[in-house]
Specification:
Layout: H1 4-14, E1 19-23, E2 35-39, E3 42-51, H2 68-79, E4 84-90, E5 97-102, H3 106-109, H4 115-121, H5 130-140
Parallel strand pairs: 3-4
Antiparallel strand pairs: 1-2, 2-3, 4-5
Length: 141
């Protein structure tokens, strides 16, 4: 199964010149997203989630659930004018699909979204790779 760490490594590998990404391992304060980044002078936060493909699109993705403190961080950061994103990697290997969700839609993803919900709220197409996701984040943050 793909993990959040695997997803992070893939993002780190495809980031483009002029973009800075930093994995945040915050054991002191929960709720802080996994990645802080900056591109074109705009800062953003990115929460990573990964899980296997459920049997149906109506089933929840078996990933680490969004927690109340994460939702509070998203809300507080967005209210202060910041940008927060969720990136879900659903499935394994070449069949994995990325879903990029604007932090404004995060409450609908809690605790775990269905694939159907992700398809409705994603900001990228089903064939998007990590490089396209980073491009979209940099343009919409």
């Amino acid at each position: 199964m793909g993990t959040e760490n695997t997803l992070w490594k893939r993002l780190e590998k495809v980031k483009y010149s002029g973009m800075h990404l930093q994995r945040v391992e915050n054991t002191c304060k929960s709720g802080v997203p996994d990645v802080e980044g900056c591109a074109g002078g705009k800062q953003f936060w990115l929460e990573l989630k990964a899980g296997p493909s459920p049997k149906t699109d109506c089933a929840m993705v078996n990933c680490e659930p969004l927690k109340a403190k994460q939702l509070k961080f998203f809300r507080d950061r967005i209210n202060a004018g910041g940008a927060v994103w969720l990136l879900y990697r659903v499935g394994d290997g070449v069949g994995a699909v990325l879903y990029l969700v604007n932090g404004n839609d995060a409450p609908g993803a809690a605790p775990r979204p269905t694939v159907q919900w992700l398809k409705k709220h994603t900001q990228c197409g089903p064939q998007a790779g990590e490089a396209m996701v980073l491009f979209l984040i940099s343009r919409h943050s």
